[in-house]
Amino acid sequence: MNAPSEAEFARRYRSLSGVERREFVAALWTARGWERVDRADESNVVVVRRGGRERRVAVGTPVPSDADAVVGDGARRLLSASPRRRAEAVGAAYVSPADLRERLLYGLDRDAADRLFRERFGVSLATAASADEGVREGVRGRLERVRRAAADDRSALLAVALAAVLVAALAVLAAGGAPALAGIPGLGPAADDAEPTAPSPPADGEYAAAAAAIGTPESAGRAVSTLDDAASLGLDEDGLTGTVGSTARTPPGAFLTGVYDADALADAHVAAAANLSSATLLLVASGPANATGLDGGAGDRVGIAGDGGVELAVASERRYRLTASANASIGDATREGTVEVYADGDAVYERVPGPSGVETRRLDPATAPNATALVGGAAAEPIRRFLNGSESTVGAAATAVPLYRIEVRGEPRALGDEADDFRAVAFVTADGLVVELSATYVHVPTGERVRVAFRYGRLGDTVAVPPSWYWEVASDGDAGDASA
């Protein structure tokens, strides 16, 4: 589906009046399963309800102190507080035009997204995309004239070169990214000759740093910030509104005295994750290849040998994105190099390193990863391995949404005498959903520090943003053999 760039979408959004922006936001939230509540209070606030809980979304300013989210237009403000700063001041989530575009394009099916865009912006997504291309071509033309002028007047080459750099920067911003320079001699690769690039490794390759950032109350609080309605996520309402250690029950396999059955907790986690409508998962490991203790071998398990990671964004059973590092395996499938899989709701595409470079192919959905099983199953093995120790404590976490904090020390039973200075921290809901887990220890045979961690996010509010290579593949129709 052709779609306007982030820059073009933001331009069109800013062209709407205040009332039109408010009504677009209300229509978008309603299309994604919320019910609008009519209120005669702040004119720029949209109140929505789902499953008995309300959210107040301020579209622009003013921003009331009880706002849950603030939608901005991305414009710079010199003399007044921006919506982003007002959102930070009241502790609300900030939603940018790029976020709105993401929710529209990837949070709805294609027909519904196009229909809503037509109703609120007066043109189809394809028409907006075509206008966007016209802007790009106009910028390319100006750049080409600058280049020719430089060739005709070499005495002014330096000044023109500086001007070209400035215009090139504006071109990138106007077009929404570096592809605006494609096909311009001397300023970018030829559009027809551009080499495909391999996907970036998860967490930019900084696996130890990514793992170290997981397992704090602040991180866990962000992970559950979208738990607007426990019932719609299959979570126990009392567990999220009661008092930890009192009216809120403890997770399966755990009590206030510690963890007594890590297997039961892992099973409860998988069951709770299966009820999530959508979620993201980041699983990372750092350490010697034979020490991280994560083995694949099943369709809902992830293996990581050494430094590596897996990122998974599941919007629905048929719409998801998965990125795995070179030494990660999904089930029993291991490949050389970083792998990306994207399912757009109709087809599944895979991008992998091949003998002759990066290859993109269409997969038979039957042979593609089971994303909905992975989103829960991938964390089950770390839960069993790292929350099964000789010493453990369970108590209330310092988070806005009531969670249990589990800490395990002593001797991890699954690692035996190969681990020293072991410590694991997890944040868990009363239902057993392990929102975060971070484990670290010294691998005795090598003396090296090992870190393994996972984190969930965007619970019930995930969109699977397509990778940059998807648009080229989708426009070609069939990217390869479906049975490959």
Q: Sheet bearing the most strands, described? A: 11 strands, antiparallel
The coarse silhouette is globular
Q: Find the count of extended strands (DSSP E, 2+ residues).
A: 21
* Average pLDDT reading: 75
Strand arrangement in the largest pleated sheet: 16-15-14-11-10-8-21-20-19-18-17
Strand residues, percent: 25-35%
Class per helix and strand makeup: alpha+beta
Total helices: the number is 14
**Residue share in helix:** 25-40%
Rg over CA atoms, rounded to whole Å, is: 25 Å
Could you explain the architecture of this structure?
It is a single chain. By secondary structure, the protein is of the alpha+beta class. It contains 14 helices and 21 strands. The chain has helices at 6-14, 18-31, 83-90, 97-107, 110-121, 125-152, 157-175, 207-212, 217-223, 237-241, 262-274, 371-377, 380-386, 470-475, and strands at 35-37, 45-50, 53-59, 69-71, 93-95, 254-255, 258-259, 279-286, 302-304, 308-316, 319-324, 328-330, 333-334, 339-344, 348-354, 357-363, 389-396, 404-412, 419-428, 434-443, 448-457. An 11-stranded antiparallel sheet has the order 16-15-14-11-10-8-21-20-19-18-17, sandwiched between helices. A hairpin with a 7-residue loop joins strand 17 and strand 18 (404-412). It is globular and about 65 Å long. It starts with 5 loop residues before the first helix and ends in a 9-residue tail after the last helix. The model is unreliable at 135-143, 153-197, 228-242 and 478-484 (pLDDT under 50).
